Structure formats: structure tokens, C-alpha cells
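Reagents: none. Just compute today. Bactoprenol glucosyl transferase homolog from prophage CPS-53.
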Amino acid sequence: MKKLISICVPMYNESENIDAFYKQLTTTIKPLTQKYDFEFLFINDGSLDDSVNKVKALAQVDSSVKLLDLSRNYGKEVAMAAGFDYCQGDAVITMDADLQHPPKVILEMVEHWEAGYLDVYGKRNERKGESFIKKKMSEMYYKLLIKFSKVEVLPGVGDYRLLDRVCIDSIIRIKETQRYTKGLYMWIGFRKKEVHFDAEERFAGETKWKFMDLLKLGIDGLTSNTTFPLKIAGILGGILSVSSILYMVYILISTLIYGTSVPGYPTLVTLILLLGGFQLISLGIMGEYLGKIFHETKNRPLYFVQEYTGETIELEKIQVPQRFAKTESV
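Predicted 3D structure written out:
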């Protein structure tokens, strides 16, 4: 009996790319079909265009194409978690539908999986179509994350990877709702192998990742992998407190020796603004961590599904385990 490889493709408004992506993907993996069966699981993350209909049309001619239609837009991290829950393969490949992840790399990934590696990840050599500023900001962010994270972080590595079933089952057991999947890949461990590729430009359409989305993802990465920002706030608070005491002693001694001096208002205002700004920054850092705790304690399902492989999901059929709202077998 052939082993099954699932290819999970989160999508949001990718109607222009789906046909070209499917054609290139199926052509590339054709040599592997003698040894493996394939499942193509498209996870629709609340698309507003014709993406769902495009996938359904493919499913009409190819029974290995499946659609997992989430009830709304939850974000890519949740969409990938949904894909992990529903995929059935002995190995799972996650990739984008915009062809920035070249399908030809899959052949090399499968080779390493056959050699015994459980997590074969793609590492970008070049990022075509990205601005110089965006590349430099990304480099700076990864340097910061690598320096302070307790878990190893790999720069230039995203979600394009092959995961063995043991890795998928391990990630499914992680029940947190505030997810940073790139950190989870490293946290679970297992034998890893990198393959290099050049990230292509999008086949069609515009990127869905705006500056604020990337900023949020970056903050999630920092607050999910390390508590260092809280330590920084404490360290700076201690330094400012000691400096304030020393300055107070200096003012006291100066007053006793030279008498009261009226000048000093600019210094006083500057110190007040400095301390006030630091306090607000510290509260903001603590607020990020408290916000994550708040969302986790709600214990809500991670997502809801309204359709899976053509069958509409009725609310009464939904089972609600600890982490997600998953349907009965369909």
C-alpha cells in the first residue's frame, strides 16, 4: 500500500493563482506518484474572491483535491493549524498558492524524508520582488529574535517544509491559540534537514501581508518565544531608579552647599517625560503578554469549519475538543 503525502495550501484571495499552481504542482510531482498517493488540501481562510469555486472545479476532475472552508478569515497561522488537523498523510507539505514556493523543491524534500529526516524545511537563498528596506528589516528582526529566543530560530526559513506524521501529531497536541508556528516547528524538535531555494515573485495578484500584518507577526514571534522584553523593562527600570536616586543625592548636596537654585525646570520636565514614556512602554510590553494570557484563558475553539470537501457542516455536528472545533468524519 502506498504512503500518502498531503500538500496543505492555505489561501486567501488566490483565485488568480490556483489553476497555475495546481498545474505546475501536479506536473512536478508526477515522478513521485509511482511510489506515493497525494492529497491536495486547500484551506480557504475567508477568501472574498472566486478561490473556493476554483478549488471545487478542480475537485470535480481530481478526487485527491479537497477543500477545507473556514467560517471566516482567521489568519494564516490558524489556517495552517486547521490543515494539520484535517490532513491525513504520512507526511505533510505546507506551501503557498502564489508559486513563491517552487514545487520542484518537493522532490528534494521527499528524498530527505525517505532518508529518515522528520522535518525538511526550505531555506530561502534569495527573495525576489522584495524591497531593500523590507529585506534589511527582516534581517534585523531575525538577529534580534535569534539573540534572545530560548528556542533556536532559523533565519530565512518560513512555512515551506515537509513534516512527518509524528511532527504533525506533536503540533496538534499543542493547544495554544496565540500561535507562532515557525517557533513551534523548532520547539517540537525531531530530526531536521534544510534544503535551499530561491523564493520567486508572486505568479499573480498582490501580497496579502501588509506592514501592520508583518509587524503583528513580528511581535507575536518575540512574545511567543521569549520573555526578554519584560526583562528589558525591568533592567531599564532599575537603571532609571538608581540614576534618579543618585541625581536626588546630587541635588540635595548641591542645595546644602550652594543654597537653593531656581533654575532646573528644563531638567525636571525632561526627567518627567523620560520616566513617563518609559512607564508607558513598560505597560505596553506587559499588556502584550497579558493580552495573550487573556485570549488563552477564554479556551475558545481555534476555528470553525463551514464546508469540507463539498459537504456543508451543520453546527449540531461539530465536536469541540480542547483546542479546535472539528467536524465528525465526512
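DSSP finds ten helices and nine strands in the chain.
Action item: order primers for follow-up constructs.
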